[in-house]
Amino acid sequence: MSHGASILATVLTCFISCILIGVWANSPLVIMPGMGETILFSYTIVLSLGFTWQEALAIVFVSGVIFTVVSFTPFANTLTNSIPSSLKHGITVGIGLFITFIGLQKGGLIVANEETIIGLGDITNITVLLTIITLILAVVLFVYNVKGGFLISLVIGTCIALPFGLTKIDYSYNIGSLFTDYQNVFGAFSFERVFSFPFWTAVFSLTMILLFQNLGMIQSFEKDDKKFKLSYQATGASNVLAGVFGTSPTVAALESAVGITEGARTGLSSVVVGVLFLTSIIFMPIINIIPDNAVAPILIIIGSLMLQSIKEINFEDFSDYLPAFLIVIMTPLTYNIADGIAFGFISYPIIKVLCGKAKELNTTICAIGALFVLNYLFLT
Fold first, then answer.
1. Distance (Å, rounded) from C-alpha 347 to C-alpha 326?
2. Which residues pair with residue 117 across a beta bridge?
3. In the beta sheet, which residues pair with residue 32?
4. Across the chain, how many H-helices and E-strands are there?
5. Structural contact between residues 240 and 40, judged by C-beta atoms closer than 8 angstroms
6. pTM to 2 decimals?
7. Which pairs from 66-69 meet CB under 8 Å and 24+ separation?
8. Does 326 or 76 have the greater pLDDT score?
9. Which residues 6+ apart lie within 8 Å of 60 measured at CB?
10. For 44-78, how does the pLDDT look when each residue is reduced to its tens digit (9 = 90+)?
């Protein structure tokens, strides 16, 4: 799949999906292809399972249809009401740490280390220094409640990076080539192997991840029950669009936190984001000059704010606390929200039974844990 076609497919999917969730759910959430889902699409479904990218798009489409159907049934409410409070808040905290971890990586403060897996970056490196400077600026603007503070820090962070050659404008960008390449991607999904067992194995795994990652993500940001349900439905429909337009699976994005923190409360912000996604085709050379040192501080601040939900976890009951802790710690360390959620949901019924508190379990939470186990068995 060509780079240009992927850009246009992503832009169009995000444009329509953001408009959809803004109008349908009146929610400030943003929908876009998820990083973890993109890795699953590329490395697991295509490279490991041997599907072509056209067949992988068909898997995304079918998963999106199943997700959408589930979101319109009473089962969606059952899922929401069956999840223990500690697990819900554990998901929020885990996502917050994940966002912070990504920000620390982008800013060069955390780097790969052969001996300890991760380690502290080179503090004397110019990228790291500019990240720290931009972070201090972003914190000051946030503390003084400056409207548009994140955007201001983004612009200033970019400006101070330019003289050091950390970013530059790409003059080779050609809009016309995007549309030429995209003709081979739109509606290119293939159902050639739809009757094979591996096809439905991939569909099951992807559907599980989409159902529960979006459940956790949307609940972290959208506390209104009605908006939650409508947002869940819109996210399901967006995955149907992803299969048609030619992108990896879509999710309610981590970046939604930025707008919400700045004051976004209605679908108007999502609609604006959708329109900006569309216009990004024109302004891509300018957008590409934004360096990581300008983005990282915003992610770090947003992640720290989400950590406040840790106060709602029941630390008095170890059988409640430990599964929540596993979600919190495994989400950033596995670099995958769905895996973090899975550890919590699998361990919760096991620990409750071992602690003699099986009466606190419900059928749904046990079934979810079993499904996550099956998901890992299928992926293996």
1. 8
2. 113
3. 251
4. 16, 4
5. no
6. 0.78
7. 66/203, 66/207, 67/207, 67/210, 67/211, 67/214, 67/235, 67/236, 67/239, 68/233, 68/236, 68/237, 68/239, 68/240, 69/236
8. 326
9. 41, 189, 206, 239, 242, 243, 247, 248, 249
10. 789 878 899 999 999 999 999 999 999 999 888 88
